[in-house]
Amino acid sequence: MKPFGAAGRQRRGTAGFTLVEVILALAILGIGITVLVATTSKCLAVARKARDYETARRLLGVLEATHPLALEEEIEEGSEEGVFDPPNERFHWRRTITAVEDLPVLESEELSDQEPDFFLVRVRIWWAEHGRNSFEEVEDYVYAPPKKEGGSFERRGR
Question: What's the pTM?
Fold first, then answer.
């Protein structure tokens, strides 16, 4: 019969892991999981941001459909703003219209006395998420000639 102490020592040396090996394996596993979670959360944040920009672009079209500038009788300088209806209530909009006077077409003597016919229309949609503001903005030039009284042609005699 073998002595109890000798058999126990021999078995303990060949079977299982030491405490240092287990702690080292857990540290490596913890670092790997941390990197995986951080990468996944960044991917989700990028997807959320892309969805927000896509929503803002879609809402630009909705804004033009609900507040059309083309149906205005006369375009005037100024700005207007508002908030979209649910489920897009965190998105806000502002449309600013400014007259453009320094276009080369307007520098001719014939047109210099007239009111400006070109307007810069700037539409901005903005939203906040986690305390940070983001926005999507579109700029358009609109031509709005003045209304003429009595027609646009002259009758010539023979």
Answer: 0.64
